[in-house]
Amino acid sequence: MLSFIHAGDVHLGNPFTGLSKNLPKSFQEAVADAGYVAFDRLIQQAIQKQVDFVLFPGDLLHGAGQTARLQATLVKGFLALKEAGIQVLLSFGNHDYQAYETVQNAWPDNVHIFSHEVQEKVLMTRSGERVAFVGFSYADRSERRDRLADFPVRNESVDYEVGLYHGAVGQVGDDYAAFSIEGMLQKNYDYWALGHIHIREIMHEQPVIAYSGNLQGLNRKETGPKGALLVEDRGQGLEPTFLDLAPVRFQTVEIADCLSFLDLMEQLKQEKYDGQTLLSVELKGTIPADLQADQASGRLLDKIQLSLSDSDTVWPIYVNLTTSQQLVKPAFAQMDFEQAIQQTVAGQSLTDSLSDEVPLSIREYFAREEGRTAVQEALKELFSEGGEA
Predict the structure, then answer these.
(1) What gap in Å lies between CA 315 and CA 327, rounded to an integer?
(2) Helix 68-83 and helix 25-48, axial crossing angle in degrees, nearest 10
(3) In 3D, which of 202, 211, 215, 209 has the Cα closest to residue 60?
(4) Which residues are 233's β-sheet partners?
(5) 299-305 long-range CB contacts below 8 Å, 24 or more apart?
(6) Alpha-carbon distance 113 to 54, whole Å?
(7) Residue ranges in the chain modelled with pLDDT below 50
(8) Structural contact between residues 215 and 227, judged by C-beta atoms closer than 8 angstroms
(9) 341 contact partners, CB below 8 Å, separation of at least 6
(10) How far apart are CA 335 and CA 387, in angstroms?
């Protein structure tokens, strides 16, 4: 039965972004190696699980991929797959389209590269099933052509048909080979291996149309576990299972109504972190004035980092405060509105609040019932115009 690994958006060679200047040495090494470690883990999983194929639907590289370490990593990995009898299907996307010309004859013959035009490649599984793979490589960064229109309908002479597609849902003519789910379903394929979007998502079930997400998170917005999809035929069609492969994880922790810096640190130390974690902290609700002052001066992140400097597991890289304004209501706000106004006016002599320079006639007016009633009406109008207290 067919099995393969779907690994979109590996972005091998891409540096992390948005990290703090104080990154500890242990994290510097982890960050520098993360993409390569994730790729090596992918190769190991493919061999361990004895899959038939590994699919890279675009952006395996981040650019032309000419560094010695990157090329050596790829050749080593592809040769290991070849020795294990595993074939590779690979297309280039908007980030690595330039590599199409440079990698020709650079990789072993178990690596099958799709050209700029849509191609169908028919290969055999270990157990003898015929599988048709259909895909294309970007010719430029935008790729505004209607690529899906060039995909053939299902080949009835094969046991499975799988599409590799690097793009985004949209209207024909949009950037990144815009496609529709309905258009893919009309092709009647058994699985669509999507690339380009860095979030793991099943766009459709039976047949599965899925993004595997990227292999390793690259910035603080790409949170949570990252990896690839193991796809197998278990008798009910091709079904994906997530493989957690990223050695470094981005994580966001939200803390509401923090009482103090001590309270903040105690809560952060109680959080669970899976592996080496680059942490973003979101403080919400009521936030003490000293923490707000530290944030305004740029000291808060430094203080959090110093307080966690002995940890080999977590390193804070970002902190953000979202305060909620709380109104302090006067005592009468808990009363009936008209009752509160009446009590305010009747509870004291209005003339006591007037300056000695106010003419006697005016003082006498506010001392009479007529004057007090006028003040009550004026207060009602004032508060009604102001809306809710």
Answers:
(1) 36
(2) 20
(3) 215
(4) 238
(5) 301/20, 302/22, 303/261, 304/264, 304/265, 304/268, 305/20, 305/22
(6) 12
(7) 325-334, 347, 385-389
(8) yes
(9) 332, 376, 379, 380, 383
(10) 16
